[in-house]
Amino acid sequence: MDSKLITLRPFKLSDADDLMSYAGDDQVTRSLRWKTLTTKDEALTFIKDVCIPHPWRRSICIDDRSIGFVTVFPGSSDDRHKADLGYAIAAKYWGQGITTKAIEVAISQVFKDSPNLVRLQAFADVENKASQRVLEKAGFQKEGVLRRYGYLKGNIKDLNIGEPNLLHVKLDPESN
Ligand SMILES: CC(C)(COP(=O)(O)OP(=O)(O)OC[C@H]1O[C@@H](n2cnc3c(N)ncnc32)[C@H](O)[C@@H]1OP(=O)(O)O)[C@@H](O)C(=O)NCCC(=O)NCCS
Question: Where are the transmembrane segments (predicted)?
């Protein structure tokens, strides 16, 4: 995959069909807190009520078609210096380096967009090897394991936690 084809942009209502291709797929949503979407109407409501109002949720696109998302969840009040990263893409695109590229672009953009942000942290289920690897490739350094920290679809999970080594991450990955 030519990384220049991969872009990030805010969600649009016209992404509903494309959103269904991953948010409607249990393979993708089993690792997310989202419930699997089942209809286009649910996708439209999700885009309108969740994606568009979100302070930093971007659609990962190829040729402007949504194939996934990357989200930065900012902390509030005394936690506004830090934010949590989330991401997923449609299963047919797995293993092509797309999420790694999308996270690199997101890091570069979100620190420019968020003057108060000094820490971007990511959590990965210790059983989710693809998620751990994508963070490692995007320049995150593992800081430790948080035991019994996460709750995912009825299960308590051990989570790896880490943040990017900003010296490792290319500051402007779009200029490649
Ligand atoms: C995790 C996810 C986003 C990765 O996206 P992706 O675009 O396939 O990621 P990349 O291609 O950039 O990198 C994936 C890496 O994980 C590796 N990988 C995949 N499955 C693996 C496994 N079971 N064990 C070890 N490594 C694995 C790939 O080989 C690749 O590493 P490599 O380039 O060194 O070969 C994608 O699998 C996904 O959407 N999963 C469902 C949602 C999810 O888990 N989100 C994260 C929640 S914390």
Answer: none
pLDDT tens digits along 150-169: 999 999 999 999 999 976 66
When the candidates are 3.40.1390.10, 3.50.50.60, 3.40.630.30, 3.30.1360.120, the CATH number that belongs to 3-175 is 3.40.630.30
Centre of ligand 1 to C-alpha 66, Å, is 18
| Long-range contacts at 153-161 (CB < 8 A, ≥ 24 apart) | 153/30, 153/33, 157/125, 157/126, 157/127, 158/125, 158/126, 159/123, 159/124, 159/125, 159/126, 160/123, 160/124, 160/125, 160/126, 160/132, 160/135, 161/121, 161/122, 161/123
Which protein residue has the closest C-alpha to ligand 1 atom 13? 134
